[in-house]
Write a structure and sequence with these properties.
Distance between the termini: 55 Å
Number of helices: 19
Helix content: 40-55%
Strand content: 5-15%
Structural class: alpha+beta
Length: 501
C-alpha cells in the first residue's frame, strides 16, 4: 500500500510496511526519512512528527487504525518546542566576559540561525565569536519529571476536580482503589492530559502521569514491575489504564473504522525450555528402548525414572508443529500414572517453583483473595462462593473454600467427580479429550496440576482465561516475572494482594 507524504512543500509516495495484517508506524517513519534524506537524529531524539492533512499528530498507537480507515496522506514536520534546544552564546574574543543566550525553537521547517534577530550591538562586535552549545533542556511535559513534580501534578489535577476528594478518602481508608474509583481517577487524569497536551499526548507526558499516580498512591504500585506504574502506563508497550482510556477517547472523536490490535504474548507455557537437569537424557536407540519400557512396565518407579530420562525428547515432540503423534499417544502413562506432570514441571522450572503454589496459596493468597472479594458486586454466583467461607453455615452443595477462592479469581477447567462440590473424591485434567488423573487429595492440589499441565504439554492458555493464568504464573509461581506480557488488571490485582496494609 502506498501513502502520499508531504515535506517542505514536496510530495512523494512512500510504501506503508505491513506484516501480520498490521501497518508499522516506526518503520514507515524511517522509510519517510530515507525518502526525503532527513537526518537520523531527528528520529532518535523524537523531534520528527507525522500529521494527517488536518495537522493532527499521528502517534504509533493509532497509525494502523488510521491507515485501515482509508487515510493515505500525511505530512512530516518537527515537534514544536518553546524552550531552548541550542544555546547560542556570543563571547567577546578579548575579554570572553560578555555572554548572551538566545532561545531557539524547532518549527515545522529546519532551524537556521537566519530565522532569529542578531543580539544587541552592545553585547557583540565584529570580533565576537558565536559558540553553539548542545543542551538537553526540553519543554516541561515533554521530558520526564522527577517523582515529586509528577506527584504534585497528579495531586493538583485530582484536587481541582469535585470527585478528587472521594478518591483521596477511599485510598486513605482502604489503601487501595476500587475498580469504579480507579476508572474515575483515570478518566480525570486523561481529560486533563488531553486538555493540556492535545488528543495525542507525548509518551513522556503519559509516563509522568503514571509516575505521579504511583508516587502519590504508593500502595497502588506493582512490586513485580520495573517501575511500579506500568499497569497505568507502560511506555515500551504503550499499554495500561491511561493508554486504554486515551485510545477510547481517540476512537470516540474519530469517525474512522476501528483497527485491530494483536497482543504479542511471550514467555508463556508454550515457550521452549531446557531441562534444569540435563544429565542422563537418552537419545536414539536408547530413547526408543526407554519408550518401550515406559509402555510395558508395571513398576511405577521404573516408569518415572525412564520418563525423566526422556524429558528432552518429549519437549522436542510437544514443540514440534509438524509432529503427527499426540504426546499422550507416545507417552500414554500420563493417563494412568499420577505424578508425571509434577515431575516434568519440576525438571523444567525447578522444585522450588513446582511447590510454590501449594506453599503460598493457603498461607497467604487465599485469605487475601477472600478479603478482596468483598468488594465484588453482589450476584447469585458470587454469594454462593462467599457462602463457602462460612464454616458455621450449612452448605452441603457448595464448593470447598479453596475452590471457591479460585473461582472468585476466574473459573478454571477441571473434571471433578464427587457427590458434593465441597467433597470431591477424584480430579482429572482433560488433554486432547483424554482424562489424566490427578494425584491430588484437594482441589487446590488439583488446580496446581492443571496449571502445570500447560507447561508440560506446551498448551496455550485459553484466550478467555489468559489474564487469570498469567496472574497465577507470575504472581504465585514467580515464573518469567518481568518478561511476560501482563494486562494492567493482572498488575493491579497483584499490587493489591502483595501490598502490606
Amino acid at each position: 500500500m502506498l501513502a502520499k507524504v508531504e515535506y517542505g512543500g514536496v510530495q512523494k509516495y512512500v510504501k506503508v510496511p505491513e506484516s501480520d495484517g498490521c501497518f508499522h508506524f516506526h518503520q514507515f517513519l524511517k522509510d519517510v526519512m530515507d525518502k526525503f534524506s532527513l537526518q537520523p537524529q531527528f528520529f532518535t531524539e523524537g523531534v520528527l512528527i507525522l500529521t494527517d492533512t488536518s495537522d493532527t499528530e499521528v502517534d504509533a498507537d493509532i497509525f494502523d487504525e488510521l491507515v485501515k480507515s482509508g487515510v493515505r496522506a500525511f505530512k512530516v514536520g518537527y515537534r514544536m518546542q518553546t524552550e531552548t534546544d541550542i544555546e547560542i552564546s556570543v563571547v567577546d574574543d578579548e575579554s570572553e566576559s560578555s555572554v548572551q543566550p538566545i532561545p531557539l525553537a524547532l518549527l515545522t521547517s529546519p532551524v537556521s540561525l537566519s530565522d532569529h534577530p542578531s543580539p544587541p550591538a552592545s553585547t557583540s562586535s565584529s570580533d565576537s565569536t558565536i559558540i553553539l552549545k548542545s543542551t538537553k533542556n526540553r519543554k516541561k511535559g515533554l521530558q520526564e519529571l522527577d517523582r515529586d513534580e509528577a506527584k504534585q501534578k497528579v495531586c493538583s489535577v485530582l484536587s481541582s476536580n469535585p470527585k478528587g476528594e472521594e478518591i483521596f478518602n477511599e485510598y486513605d481508608k482502604t489503601k487501595t482503589l476500587s475498580d469504579p474509583t480507579r476508572r474515575q481517577m483515570v478518566n480525570i487524569l486523561v481529560a486533563d492530559m488531553i486538555e493540556s497536551h492535545g488528543r495525542i499526548p507525548p509518551i513522556s507526558v503519559r509516563t509522568n502521569y503514571a509516575l505521579g499516580i504511583a508516587t502519590l498512591f504508593p500502595y497502588l504500585q506493582d512490586p513485580y514491575s520495573k517501575n511500579g506504574y506500568e499497569h497505568y502506563y507502560d511506555p515500551e508497550a504503550n499499554t495500561g489504564y491511561l493508554a486504554w482510556r486515551l485510545k477510547t477517547v481517540q476512537r470516540n472523536t474519530y469517525d474512522g473504522a476501528s483497527g485491530c490490535h494483536r497482543p504479542n504474548f511471550q514467555n508463556s507455557p508454550t515457550t521452549r525450555r531446557e531441562s534444569l537437569f540435563v544429565s542422563g537424557q537418552l537419545f536414539g536407540e536408547e530413547c526408543r528402548e526407554a519408550l518401550s519400557v515406559i509402555r510395558h512396565s508395571t513398576d511405577r518407579s521404573v516408569v518415572k525414572e525412564k520418563m525423566k530420562a526422556t524429558f528432552e525428547y518429549r519437549q522436542k515432540l510437544v514443540h514440534d508443529p509438524d509432529a503427527t503423534s499426540s504426546i499422550l499417544d507416545v507417552f500414554p502413562r500420563f493417563l494412568d500414572t499420577p505424578g508425571l506432570i509434577d515431575q516434568d514441571f519440576a525438571m523444567m522450572l525447578g522444585d522450588e517453583a513446582s511447590g510454590r503454589f501449594l506453599t503460598k496459596w493457603s498461607s497467604y493468597f487465599k485469605q487475601k483473595i477472600i478479603a478482596e472479594s468483598q468488594s465484588l458486586p453482589s450476584s447469585p454466583c458470587v454469594e454462593e462462593l462467599r457462602a463457602s467461607f462460612d464454616t458455621e453455615a450449612s452448605n452441603d452443595w457448595g464448593w470447598d473454600s479453596d475452590m471457591a477462592a479460585l473461582l472468585l479469581l476466574l473459573q478454571p477447567f477441571l473434571l471433578c467427580i464427587g457427590e458434593q462440590k465441597k467433597n470431591i473424591q477424584r480430579f482429572f485434567i482433560i488433554v486432547d479429550q483424554k482424562a489424566i488423573p490427578c494425584d491430588a487429595p484437594t482441589s487446590v492440589a488439583a488446580f496446581d496440576g492443571l496449571f502445570k499441565a500447560h507447561f508440560v504439554f506446551s498448551l496455550s492458555y485459553d484466550e478467555a482465561l489468559s489474564s487469570f493464568y498469567t496472574f497465577i504464573q507470575t504472581t504465585i509461581y514467580n515464573i518469567d516475572v518481568g518478561n511476560t506480557k501482563e494486562s494492567p488488571r493482572v498488575k493491579e490485582l497483584r499490587a493489591r494482594l502483595l501490598r502490606d496494609r
